[in-house]
C-alpha cells in the first residue's frame, strides 16, 4: 500500500510541473497560481467550480477522515479497555463524517448535471469515475442501514446479527470495509483527473498532495501501532464466551488482543 501511495503522490507532483514550452514565472507564487497546463489564465464555470469544491470536500476530506475514525479509534486513548467497553465516540464521528461526505458528494453531482463529459480522456474518465463513486457512496449508506441488529449482553434480546456474527453481518463487514477503502482510493484518482480536466491552478494539486500525504502517513502510523482493533472486541471485550470471538476477524490488518496483550502494547492509561 505504501508503494502505491508513493506512486500516486508522485503523479500528483508531476501534474504540477510546468510545460517545457512555457517560460518559468518570475516568482514562486506565480508558478503556484498558474494552471497545470502552463496557460496564462484559468477559467471555469461557477457551477462546475462548486461541483469541484463539494467533491473535494466529500471524497477528499470528510469521507477519508470518517474511515480513519472507524478503523483506528474504536478504543480511544485513555480508555480502560476491556473494563470500559463500547465507547461510541468513533461511531458518532464516523456516521457524522460519512453522512456529511455523501451529502456533499450528492450536491456536487447535482451541480454537474447536464454539463456533459467534457473533452479529453481525463474528463471522460473523471466523469465515469464520478458516477461510479456516487453509486458506491449510496451503496455504503444502504449497506449500513441493512447491517442487521446488534444484540449482546446489554440487550434484553441477547441475540443479534452483530453479537452472533451471522452471515448477514459478516457480509456487511466485508462489503462495507472493502468497498469503502477502494472508493476512497479511486476518488483520489478521480479528483486528480478533475484537476487536469479543469486545468486547475497548481496550488490546488500541491495542497491536495500534501493533505493526502498526511492522511496516508497517519494511516501507516496508526496501523503499525496496532490501533486497528476488531469492532467486536471493542464492543464486547476479548472473552471467549462471546460467539463472535470464536470466528476470525473480518478485514485486512484487523487486530485482536487479550487484556494482558493490550496493556503490554499500550500500557496503562
SSE layout and pairing:
Blueprint: H1 2-15, H2 28-33, H3 46-72, H4 89-112, H5 121-145, H6 161-164, H7 167-198, H8 202-225, H9 231-236, H10 259-266
Explain this structure to me?
This protein has 269 residues and is mainly alpha-helical. The protein has a single domain (2-17, 42-266), classed as Four Helix Bundle (Hemerythrin (Met), subunit A), CATH 1.20.120.1770. The protein is 63% helix and 0% strand. The two termini are 31 Å apart. The model is unreliable at 18-25 (pLDDT under 50).
Structure at a glance:
This protein is mainly alpha-helical. 63% of the residues lie in helices and 0% in strands. Helix 5 packs antiparallel against helix 7 (167-198).
> What best-fitting shape do the alpha-carbon axes yield?
elongated
Evaluate the radius of gyration. 22 Å
For the terminal residues, how far apart are their CA atoms? 31 Å
CATH topology: Four Helix Bundle (Hemerythrin (Met), subunit A)
**Could you report the average pLDDT, rounded to the nearest whole number?**
89
Order of helices and strands: HHHHHHHHHH
Query: Architecture in CATH?
Result: Up-down Bundle
The total of beta strands comes to 0
Find the structural class using helix and strand composition.
mainly alpha
> Which segments are poorly predicted (pLDDT under 50) over 5 or more consecutive residues?
18-25
Would you state the CATH class? Mainly Alpha
DSSP helix fraction: 55-70%
Sheet having the most strands: none
Give short descriptive properties of this protein.
single chain, 269 residues, mainly alpha, Four Helix Bundle (Hemerythrin (Met), subunit A), 0% strand, elongated
Amino acid at each position: 500500500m505504501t508503494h502505491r501511495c508513493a506512486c500516486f503522490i508522485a503523479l500528483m507532483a508531476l501534474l504540477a510541473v510546468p510545460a517545457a514550452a512555457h517560460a518559468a514565472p518570475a516568482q514562486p507564487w506565480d508558478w503556484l497560481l498558474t494552471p497545470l497546463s502552463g496557460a496564462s489564465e484559468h477559467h471555469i464555470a461557477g457551477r462546475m467550480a462548486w461541483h469541484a469544491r463539494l467533491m473535494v470536500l466529500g471524497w477528499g476530506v470528510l469521507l477519508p477522515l470518517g474511515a480513519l475514525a472507524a478503523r483506528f479509534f474504536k478504543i480511544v486513548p485513555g480508555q480502560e479497555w476491556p473494563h470500559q467497553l463500547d465507547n461510541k465516540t468513533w461511531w458518532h464521528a464516523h456516521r457524522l463524517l460519512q453522512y456529511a461526505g455523501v451529502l456533499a458528494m450528492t450536491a456536487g453531482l447535482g451541480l454537474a448535471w447536464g454539463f456533459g463529459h467534457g473533452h479529453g480522456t481525463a474528463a471522460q474518465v473523471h466523469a465515469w469515475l464520478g458516477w461510479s463513486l456516487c453509486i458506491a457512496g449510496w451503496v455504503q449508506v444502504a449497506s449500513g442501514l441493512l447491517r442487521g441488529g446488534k444484540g449482546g449482553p446489554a440487550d434484553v434480546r441477547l441475540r443479534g446479527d452483530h453479537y452472533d456474527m451471522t452471515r448477514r453481518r459478516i457480509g456487511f463487514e466485508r462489503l462495507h470495509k472493502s468497498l469503502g477503502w477502494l472508493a476512497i482510493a479511486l476518488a483520489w484518482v478521480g479528483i486528480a483527473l478533475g484537476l487536469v480536466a479543469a486545468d486547475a491552478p497548481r496550488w490546488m494539486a500541491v495542497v491536495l498532495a500534501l493533505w493526502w500525504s498526511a492522511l496516508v502517513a497517519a494511516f501507516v502510523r496508526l496501523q503499525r501501532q496496532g490501533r486497528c482493533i476488531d469492532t467486536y472486541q471493542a464492543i464486547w471485550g476479548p472473552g471467549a464466551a462471546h460467539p463472535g470471538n470464536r470466528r476470525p476477524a473480518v478485514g485486512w490488518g484487523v487486530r485482536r488482543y487479550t487484556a494482558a496483550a493490550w496493556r503490554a502494547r499500550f500500557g496503562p492509561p
